[in-house]
Amino acid sequence: MDMTIPETQAKEFVEDFFHAGKPNTLENLKDRLDNKLHLFRKDKDQLDFLKVLVNDINKDIEIHEADCERIDCEYREMRNPGFFLIRQEIDEINNRFKFEPKNEDRFSTEDEISLHHKLNEILEKLDRQDLGQEILFEEIESLKNHFGLGKKTWFQLLKGKLFEVAIEKGIEIALVQPIYDALSEGFTSNLKWLN
Fold first, then answer.
1. Residues 84 and 116 both lie in one domain
2. Are residues 111 and 186 in the same domain?
3. pLDDT recorded at residue 129
4. 172 φ/ψ sector (left φ>0, alpha ψ -120 to 50, else beta)
5. Which range of residues forms the domain containing residue 146?
6. Which of 96, 128, 162 is the last residue of a domain?
7. Which of these, 194, 123, 114, 116, lies nearest to 153 by C-alpha position?
8. Do 186 and 108 belong together in one domain?
9. What average pLDDT is seen over the chain?
10. Residue at which a domain ends, from 43, 68, 96
11. pTM of the model as a whole
12. Would you place residue 6 in the very low, low, confident or very high pLDDT band (cuts 50, 70, 90)?
């Protein structure tokens, strides 16, 4: 798979980030990072850039530590200010980033209504059976607020929540699998990758 321009730029920048001729103070590192991020207008491009940058810095540290014979090597600690700044940038971008699913992945109004009804039916059934699965009940109820994630992400979230609760609370998978099956009915062509 070809790398995007931000990813390619991150691979080239990783060396310059820490070796630009000036001391690696927070101020200098911040200036370098800001100057580079300024080239990318979209939050997604900035996140892609930062993701590759973090990954490549980690690889660089691993390679250095594998070859370094100095006791108390501070190579990793010298990179910590850079990691700190990158984490701040990622957090800031994530706070303003609004996920937009692709058009073909969005739920139609009819899909949302159908799933909402299915969720209500499942909640009523759980309540009637008095399974005492309050956490499962809460997790299913919370799914009503996340249709904006798109089909792929919503069904990943559904599957993750159901099976996480099952494992944590010792609920048999046989009890949660029908819930997933009932909700995903009619969406199976979109969910081949999930099963």
1. no
2. yes
3. 64
4. beta
5. 103-194
6. 96
7. 194
8. yes
9. 83
10. 96
11. 0.53
12. very high
Torsion of CA 194, 161, 145, 178, to 10 degrees: 70
Q: What is the pLDDT of residue 194?
A: 46
| Higher-pLDDT residue of 66, 144 | 66
Residue 128 and residue 163: Cα distance in Å, rounded? 22
Residues 137, 62 within the same domain = no
pLDDT tens profile 161-179: 887 777 777 777 777 788 8
Mean local confidence (pLDDT), 70-74? 90
Note whether 22 and 74 are same-domain residues. Answer: yes
Token readout for 46 is 């900035």
